[in-house]
Design a protein that fits this description.
- The complex is a heterodimer of chains A (345) and B (326).
- Chain A is of the alpha/beta class.
- Chain A is built from ten helices and twelve strands.
- In chain A, the strands form two sheets. In chain A, strands 6-7-8-3-9-10-12-11 form an eight-stranded mixed beta sheet, with helices on both faces. In chain A, strands 2-1-4-5 form a four-stranded antiparallel beta sheet.
- In chain A, a hairpin with a 5-residue loop joins strand 11 and strand 12.
- In chain A, helix 5 packs parallel to helix 6.
- The two termini of chain A are 43 Å apart.
- With 326 residues, chain B is an alpha/beta fold.
- Chain B has a domain of 102 residues.
- In chain B, 34% of the residues lie in helices and 22% in strands.
- Chain B is built from 13 helices and twelve strands.
- Chain B has an eight-stranded mixed beta sheet with strand order 6-7-8-3-9-10-12-11, with helices on both faces. A four-stranded antiparallel beta sheet of chain B has the order 2-1-4-5, covered by helices on one side.
- In chain B, a hairpin with a 2-residue loop joins strand 9 and strand 10.
- The longest helix of chain B has 18 residues.
- Chain B starts with 6 loop residues before the first strand and ends in a 6-residue tail after the last strand.
- Classes of the chains: A alpha/beta (345), B alpha/beta (326).
- Chains A and B meet through helix 6, helix 7, helix 8 and helix 9 of A and helix 8, helix 9, helix 11 and helix 12 of B.
Chain lengths: 345, 326
C-alpha cells in the first residue's frame, strides 16, 4: 500500500494545477443570453502523502465540483490533475476504474448513499469483483477485515442498511470507500448528517484509519471545529477560487483573509457568549461575479482598489501561508493586536 | 412580578399511538418562559424537542397527542380552547419559524402576499393596507429593495432571504412568543450569523420571547438566556446558558460538550482524542427503564437501571435529573 511513498521527491499524492470547471448556462429554448458559470476557476492544490487537507467554503463556492473533478466524475474545462504521479485529466472515461483504485469518497448522508436493497456484503463485494478480485475466499477475507477496521462485526455483513443506526451506516459508507485500498479519500461532510453524540465516534474512526492504512484525506466540511481538529493544512474557497491556504494553525490562529476571519468568527461557541460576526449581504451570483476581489462587496476592509480589476492574486509567504487579498498584511497587523487584547477563552 | 409567566408547561406527556403500540414520546416535561425571555431546547434527533414545540402551538396531529399535563399561555390553559380560539393565538401571539423555509412558504404565492395575509387574517386590515405593511415588514428584516421583492416568489430568493421572509411573517403581528425550530440549520455559517443576529435584535426590540430549538449547543448558548437539554423524551438538565455547558451537572450534557471538536481547542490543548458517548440514542419504543441515559452512562449504578431520577434543584440555580449529578 505504501509503494511510491519512498520515491525521492515524490511526497505529493495529488496535485491540482490551474483547474477550471465552467458550465454554460441558458441560451436554450427558454432564451436568455448564453452565460458561463465558473464553478471552479483556476484552482491550484497539493495534497501530501498521509496528510489531511481541510477544504472549507460555503455552498456554491465550488468545493464539491472540485471534488468531483478529482474523482474523475466531472470533466474539467482547463487545467491538470496529477494523481499519484499520473496525469488523469484528458483521459478516456473508461479510466475511471483505474482512478477508483486511487481515490474514493465518503458521502454526507449514509441514508441516501447506500443501496437499501443490497446487503452490506453485496455493497462491499461488488467493487472487488468489478476490479478483478474473483477468489471467493479472498473476497470474504477482505470484507471481514474491512468490517473489523470500521468497528463492525463480520457477522453483520448479511444485514441491510435499514438495520443499522446512522453512525453504523456511516461506518459502512467508510468501509465501501476503503474496500479497494485507495490512497486518497475525499470526505464530503462525513459527520454533518449524524447526531451530535455520534460524530465524535466517526471523527475518531477516520483519524485512526488514516494512520493505520496510511491514507491521505481531503476533508470537506462547513464545520470549522471538525476541520481544525482533523486537518494538517486548510484551503478556503470563495466563488470558485482559493482565497487562503496554509498550515491549520496559521489558518485558525492567524487567518489573514477577511473571509476566513469572518467564517471563524461566525461559529457560535457553547462556552462563550459573544455576538456572531456578520458580513454584508450574501454570496454574489456566480453568473455575475463582482469586478476585482470577489469578496469585496461583503468585506468590511474593502477599499476602492478592491472593487476594480485586476483581482488580487494568491500571494504565498515563505512559510507556505498563501492569501488572496490586497490588504492582507495590513489587516493581519490589526487583528493580531485585537487578539492579544482579548486573549484566548 | 406576580404576573404569570408567558408560557408554562407542566408535566407534559405526549403520546405516540399506532395500532400496535402506545408509548410516551415525551414525558414529565416542565418549563416556563417569561415575557421577552430567550429559552433554548437542545437535544439530538428523536429526543422530543420539536414535538414539544408543536404541542405549544397546538399543531400535534395523529398519531401524536397530548396525554397529560398542562400548557398555559399567559395564564390560560391552551388545551381547552376551541379551535377558532387556538387559531387566533397561533400566528398572532405565538408564531413559529421552521428549518427549511422553502417547504414552509407557499411556492405559488408571492412572498409579499404571504406576509400581507397575516395582517388581513389577524389584524382586520384590507389588502391594500396589508400590502403596504408587508413592504415595511420586509424592510424590517433588511431585505434590500422590499417594494420590488414583495412580488417575488419563494424560488426566486436565496435560502437566507427566504428565512428573512419567514421571520417577517412570524413577527408581522407582533407575537409574544417566537418558536424557532432549527431556524438556520439549512443555511451557511455566515448567513446563519446574520439571521441569528436579526432574529435576536428584532425580538429584543419588540419584547418578543424566543423558544429556540436546536441540536447546536453553541447556537443555543449564544441566543438563549436559559437552556434545557432533552434526552429520550425528558428534560435532563436546565440552567442558565452561561453555566450549563461550562459546569455540566448531567453526565449526558457533559458527554455532549466533551464530544465536540470545539474551535480553538486543538490550538490550546493539542489534538486529543474526542470523547465518545458510547452506544446510540434509543428509539422511542425502546426507551430503557430507570434513567433513560443509563445504558450509555459511565456513572450508572443499580438505582439508575430501575428508578427514574426525580428533578433536583441545583444550589446555583437550575435543575437536573440524575441520581449521581455533579
Amino acid at each position: 500500500m505504501h509503494e511510491g511513498a519512498g520515491k525521492p521527491g515524490n511526497d505529493l499524492i495529488l496535485s491540482v494545477e490551474d483547474l477550471a470547471v465552467h458550465f454554460p448556462v441558458g441560451g436554450g429554448l427558454l432564451g436568455g443570453g448564453r452565460r458561463l458559470l465558473r464553478a471552479v476557476d483556476g484552482v491550484d492544490l497539493e495534497l501530501k502523502r498521509g496528510e489531511c487537507l481541510g477544504l472549507v467554503g460555503e455552498s456554491g463556492c465550488g468545493k464539491s465540483t472540485l471534488a468531483l473533478s478529482i474523482l474523475g466524475l466531472q470533466m474539467p474545462t482547463r487545467g491538470r490533475i496529477v494523481l499519484d504521479g499520473q496525469v488523469v485529466t484528458g483521459r478516456p472515461s473508461g479510466d475511471r476504474k483505474a482512478l477508483a483504485r486511487i481515490v474514493q469518497m465518503v458521502f454526507q448522508d449514509p441514508y441516501a448513499s447506500l443501496n437499501p436493497r443490497q446487503t452490506v456484503r453485496r455493497t462491499l463485494e461488488d467493487p472487488l469483483r468489478l476490479h478483478g478480485v474473483t477468489a471467493k475466499s479472498e473476497i470474504e477475507e477482505r470484507v471481514a477485515t474491512m468490517l473489523r477496521h470500521v468497528g463492525l462485526r463480520p457477522e453483520q455483513a448479511g444485514r441491510y442498511p435499514h438495520e443499522f443506526s446512522g453512525g453504523q451506516r456511516q461506518r459502512i459508507g467508510i468501509a465501501r470507500a476503503l474496500i479497494l485500498n485507495p490512497k486518497i479519500v475525499i470526505c464530503d461532510e462525513p459527520v454533518s448528517a449524524l447526531d451530535v453524540s455520534i460524530r465524535a465516534q466517526i471523527i475518531n474512526l477516520l483519524l485512526e484509519l488514516k494512520e493505520t492504512l496510511g491514507l491521505s484525506y481531503i476533508m470537506i466540511s462547513h464545520d470549522l471545529g471538525v476541520v481544525e481538529h482533523m486537518s494538517d493544512r486548510v484551503a478556503v474557497m470563495y466563488l470558485g477560487r482559493i482565497v487562503e491556504t496554509g498550515d491549520w494553525r496559521e489558518i485558525f490562529e492567524r487567518a489573514a483573509h477577511p473571509y476566513t476571519q469572518t467564517l471563524i468568527a461566525a461559529i457560535p461557541d457553547p462556552l462563550r457568549r459573544a455576538p456572531l460576526a456578520t458580513t454584508k449581504g450574501e454570496l454574489p451570483n456566480p453568473l455575475n461575479p463582482p469586478d476585482g476581489c470577489a469578496f469585496a462587496p461583503r468585506c468590511r476592509y474593502a477599499e476602492a482598489a478592491c472593487h476594480r480589476e485586476p483581482r488580487p492574486s494568491l500571494e504565498t509567504r515563505p512559510d507556505g501561508h498563501a492569501v488572496r487579498c490586497w490588504r492582507a498584511d495590513e489587516i493581519a497587523g490589526r487583528t493580531a493586536l485585537a487578539s492579544t487584547e482579548s486573549g484566548h477563552p | 412580578m406576580t404576573s404569570p409567566p408567558l408560557i408554562e408547561v407542566e408535566d407534559l406527556r405526549i403520546d405516540l399511538d399506532d395500532r400496535s403500540s402506545h408509548v410516551a414520546a415525551v414525558e414529565g416535561v416542565s418549563f416556563r418562559i417569561d415575557r421577552g425571555e430567550t429559552f433554548g431546547l437542545v437535544g439530538e434527533s428523536g429526543c422530543g424537542k420539536s414535538i414539544t414545540a408543536l404541542a405549544l402551538i397546538g399543531l400535534l396531529r395523529q398519531p401524536l397527542s397530548i396525554g397529560a399535563g398542562a400548557i398555559r399561555f399567559d395564564g390560560r390553559e391552551i388545551q381547552g380552547l376551541a379551535s377558532a380560539e387556538q387559531r387566533a393565538l397561533r400566528g398572532n401571539r405565538i408564531a413559529m419559524i421552521f428549518q427549511e423555509p422553502m417547504t414552509a412558504l407557499n411556492p405559488v404565492s408571492p412572498v409579499g402576499r404571504q406576509i400581507a395575509e397575516m395582517f388581513v387574517l389577524h389584524k382586520g386590515k384590507n389588502w391594500r393596507e396589508a400590502n403596504q405593511l408587508a413592504v415595511e415588514a420586509l424592510a424590517s428584516v433588511r431585505v434590500p429593495a422590499p417594494e420590488r421583492r414583495v412580488k417575488d416568489y419563494p424560488h426566486q430568493l436565496s435560502g437566507g432571504m427566504r428565512q428573512r421572509v419567514m421571520i417577517a411573517i412570524a413577527l408581522a403581528c407582533g407575537p409574544d412568543l417566537l418558536i424557532a425550530d432549527e431556524p438556520t440549520t439549512a443555511l451557511d455559517v455566515t448567513v446563519q450569523a446574520e439571521i441569528i443576529e436579526l432574529m435576536r435584535n428584532l425580538c429584543a426590540e419588540r419584547g418578543t420571547a424566543i423558544l429556540m430549538i436546536s441540536h447546536d449547543l453553541g447556537l443555543v448558548a449564544n441566543v438563549c438566556r436559559r437552556v434545557a437539554v432533552m434526552y429520550a423524551g425528558r428534560i435532563v438538565e436546565e440552567r442558565g446558558s452561561a453555566d450549563i455547558f461550562r459546569a455540566c451537572a448531567h453526565p449526558y450534557t457533559q458527554g455532549l460538550v466533551d464530544s465536540l471538536p470545539r474551535l480553538g481547542s486543538r490550538a490550546a490543548l493539542g489534538r486529543t482524542r474526542l470523547q465518545e458517548i458510547a452506544g446510540v440514542v434509543p428509539a422511542i419504543a425502546d426507551f430503557p427503564d430507570g434513567c433513560r441515559f443509563n445504558p450509555r452512562c459511565a456513572r450508572a449504578t443499580e438505582i439508575c437501571r430501575t428508578t427514574a431520577p426525580e428533578t433536583t434543584l441545583l444550589g446555583a440555580g437550575g435543575l437536573v435529573r440524575c441520581h449521581h449529578h455533579a
